[in-house]
Amino acid sequence: MPDMTSIKEILDTYGKYSGLTSGTSMLPLLHQGKDTIIVVKPKERLKKYDVALYVTKQGKYIMHRVVEVHDDHYIITGDNLLAKEYVTDDMICGKLVGFYKNGKHFVDCENSKAYKIYSKVWVAGKPLRPALLFCRRGFNFAKRLPFIVIRKIKKTIKADK
């Protein structure tokens, strides 16, 4: 069995990592298990709107967007989250430079005008995000509601027999 290599070790050795995404914190941009990310080891400090890959003290890899840059840290948050994270340069191991949507369409984070517009609009809209997330969750619940009602009816019918 070959030795398992961490993403940080791959980035330190080769300067580039690609793999499938995991988690929902970067929705609607990245979809879990569907989109392939391409991450490089950053050559300079990150900028606002960059998507950073960083490692927590517990060794967990997280990929979220830089929303503020300070001299000694960054404020980072997931596109699908509300909480701010305070991340220092020593925690950062990579920067998203592109991704394949559903393994097909390549999005270049460095040069795509549409991606850059999305990033700026999404960060500027952060104050509206709680309402957007609430509406989306309500919509998803409304989509499931008929199935929930049917399941309850079936349970009632079964219990009556």
What's the mean pLDDT score?
Answer: 90
- How much β-strand is present in the residues? 25-35%
DSSP E strands, number: 8
Structural class: alpha+beta
Characterization of this structure:
The chain is α+β, with helices and mostly antiparallel strands. The chain is built from 3 helices and 8 strands, in the order H-E-E-E-E-E-E-E-E-H-H. Strands 1, 2, 3, 4, 5, 6, 7 and 8 form an 8-stranded antiparallel beta sheet that branches. Strand 7 (92-101) and strand 8 (105-108) form a beta hairpin. The model has no long low-confidence stretch (mean pLDDT 90).
Quick take:
The protein is of the alpha+beta class. It has helices spanning 7-14, 113-124, 129-160, and strands at 16-20, 36-40, 51-55, 61-69, 74-77, 85-87, 92-101, 105-108.
Give structural attributes.
8-stranded antiparallel sheet
Describe the SSE topology.
Layout: H1 7-14, E1 16-20, E2 36-40, E3 51-55, E4 61-69, E5 74-77, E6 85-87, E7 92-101, E8 105-108, H2 113-124, H3 129-160
Antiparallel strand pairs: 1-2, 2-7, 3-4, 3-7, 4-5, 5-6, 7-8
